[in-house]
Amino acid sequence: MKFLLNRIKRINNTTFLFNCNKFHTSHKQDAIAPILWVIIKPISKLSSILIGRSIRKIINSPNNLHKKEALVNHFKLRKKLYLFGISSLGIGCYANYLSHIEETPITHRKRFILFNTEHFLEIEDIEKKDMLNLYKDKILPISNEKTQRTYQVAKRLFMANKTMPEVKDIDWKLTVIDADLVNAHAFPSGEVFVYSGLLDFVDNDDELAFVIAHEMAHAILQHTAETMSQLRLLDIFSIGLSFLFWGFLPADWSAILMESLSNQFHKYYYELPYSRKLEKEADLVGMQLAARACFDIRYSPQFWTKMKISSKEEIPEFLSTHPSNDTRALDLESLVPEALKIRQDCKCYELPKTIKQSKIILSN
Ligand SMILES: [Zn+2]
After folding, report:
1. Is 77 helix (H, G, I), strand (E, B) or coil?
2. pLDDT, tens digit, for every residue of 17-48?
3. What one-character-per-residue DSSP string does 9-70 give?
4. Is the pLDDT reported for residue 293 higher than 50?
5. Residue 9 has pLDDT above 90, yes or no
6. 15-17 vs 173-177, strand pairing mode
7. Domain spans of the chain?
8. From residue 93, how far is each of 86, 87, 100, 216 by CA, in Å?
9. For residue 93, how far is its CA from the centre of ligand 1 (angstroms)?
10. Are 284 and 328 in contact (CB under 8 A)?
11. Which residue of 13, 49, 150, 329 is surrounded by the most CB atoms within 10 Å?
12. In angstroms, what is the span from residue 328 Cα to ligand 1's centroid?
């Protein structure tokens, strides 16, 4: 593995490459690749439904009394064997689960993680190709003023944080797309896409820096790998539940109802809150990255207040993968004192007493 630090260069006339590394991630060989799971998951789900349904038919059919009796006798005779099998499977699954508990870099949070970034390169390539196809005439050249501005901000973030292995070990790339979207996006490999609508929306580079730093934080913390690991767990759990629903509930309609209820339960009580938790973590780490690069992080809550004012309609937080604009502004406000301390420790230039109020906020 070779490190070519500080070599910030162009890899073509639209993309900046900030670093040149191979991924430095531990190998997790025992996980079924996400792309393969796309095929295995529906087959497993369908099989568990069909097997469960066949068992129910045997149990419920009056014509199958002898089969039912044979089935009951079969389980009675081998009760200990089945109990042993189920307990061993449970212990094995739990041990496997524990062996995949890791700490997040920087925030040191314990999490279950099955994959690493390399598992997603194929999926990422497909998504990137789609994205580049969609915006093929909209990618701004490096010489463009907007690309240059974004590049200067991203470079400052990278240079100030490159001593951290988590930042150093990623091949950061930057592309700016001419689209009226107030957004940015980072792929797990470290390729960051910024939309020009964001550059038009921010009042200054401090706000822009926070948004880019937030996206960098997602890549540093391997949030995609973590989310996919959590979803894999949920998938396995859901395949097991399908077997129980279709095997032991009285009719098809009750199994369908329970399937639908359990899907909603997973979504609203687990998936969405988990996604919002990761967004908060990316905000926290993004603040730290921006503070180390001496940006005025006090503008980050203001950015989200502006987003709130500018959003015509915002879906309720509990239905969203992201915290509401209000929540983000408040959470970031609470992180400002700690981030200011980081700036101080990094011997950054002194900030003015107050920040400039945005025109959007003043005119509201
Ligand atoms: Zn995010």
Report:
1. helix
2. 666 554 444 445 556 777 788 899 999 999 99
3. EESSSSEEE-----------TTSPPHHHHHHHHHHHHHHHHHHHHHHHHHHH-GGGHHHHHH
4. yes
5. no
6. antiparallel
7. 9-30+139-217+273-362
8. 10, 10, 11, 33
9. 31
10. no
11. 150
12. 11
